[in-house]
Amino acid sequence: MAQTLILEGNEGYVLSEILKLSDAQHPTGYLSNEEYTKYFLKSVKGVSNVRKTLAQQINDPTITNVGIIVDANSKGTKARFDSIKSTLTQYLPTVENWDYVASSPAGWVADVAPSFRVGLWVMPNNKDDGYFEHFLTELIAPEDESFLAAQEMLTSIQKSKNQRFPDLRAQKALLALFLAIQEEPGMSAVTALRKGLLRHKHPAARLFVDWYENTFTLG
Amino acid sequence: MIEHLTIKNFLAFPELEVPELKLINLVAGKNGVGKTALLEAIQLYKCSDKIGTNRLISENRKGNIIHHKDRIFASKLEINNLSMTMAVGDYKSKVFIDGEQVEGHGHPDDYPNHEYEFIRSGIKEHDWISRRWSSFVLTEKEELVTEVISKVIGLNIFRIAVTDQSIMVKIAGAKNPVNIKSLGDGLMRTFQIAMALVDSKPLASNLIGLLLIDEIETHLHHSVIRKLWKIIFEYAIKWNIQVVATTHSQDAIRQLFYEAAANESYQEKVQVLRLQIGRSGKHEVIEYPYEKLEFMMDTKLEIRGL
Questions:
Q1: Which pLDDT band holds residue B1 (cuts at 50, 70, 90)?
Q2: I need a surface site. Which of A147, B48, B83, B298 has the fewest CB within 10 A?
């Protein structure tokens, strides 16, 4: 049994930390950390590479489970769902059970062919536009004062002439600002998860863990 | 050149389609999936005469049973039910085996003397090597073989002599010859591949040779495999030899890729073919031309299922 998790960006380590803190098991066949990071996680750059990588996985009959994590960005979840569907229909003789259901907070998981399960998670929440950082900032406690401070900083930067990033990437800036002003300045998201500043028990993270557990065969 | 290939009812294959063959082809796949059978199918096609077919049956597959799910194939080639089609350039020819017509496209002049060279996975017995080498000695081919071996293993081999019992190698500058065995199985294997490579050189520049190598990685260290690919590319292009090799080693694939990555002109001439039982339960070939190999390497995707 071979399984892979295809990621559009480099969020694999952070998401793996959420899984680890939630006591999710490693996928069957990838029990060591090396097997997990080297062979299970496939970080590729951009959606077109996600599709190419998915095509490779479909063409390999030893692959039984594939998870895909992409950002909705401003394209919307349906566009992402359809793009995965077109790759599936291109390379599989028949595709079953892959029908779009709007606002599917638990992501989409289906046995699309015999011995072939596909799970799709569209960041941030399988519903709204946005990306990975929207998902992560959701995990910050709303009363966290450093988060309020980060939001104020972002607002003042946006009002000034010093905003160098495009508006679409503001949430990345916000998360970076939040992490920048922690006890350890420029803290990593992994450390923030370990310290509970990003809460892995938040329902949004819980849904992600469920999606992972539904997509893969574990243990 | 064989450009595409359809095999029907041959050994493990009820049907197998290879949409495209390039100059250099590496067939990868699990043990028992039929890599050797694929080479044998090509070989059988080349043995278009009855003598060739008999030779094939008596030499190969002795007591060798191929299992394919619920089907067990007998210990000899099933040629009564054989049909194959192939395209070789624009030419057409017909081949009959046991009264059965083999539809094909190919010109007999493509392979005037040396129909093909087939290097199997093991090391040949001494008699075979001895006979073969005696046809090389004192000809241009002798020099070519020593040149090829020297390049592959990185030793300057001056001469090779095959006696009744042993194969002796004289390294340039060394006082005495040494027994090839003392230099390892890798050199023996390289010696055989080098002879086959030189012998598959076509007799005229408008012809094309064919070299089949089963389990190319056998006995070879990965650093040697890289050099072997280098030599295969160099001579296959220079002499016009089509190469079909098999492997079940990731490393052989990687070394092939590295060699092609370092030489842009090689990239359109090479491909890896993964032979597998697909999701449909049928044999299939997945083609990995250079760009696809590059993507696999970049994303650290192994060509899995080997």
A1: confident
A2: B298
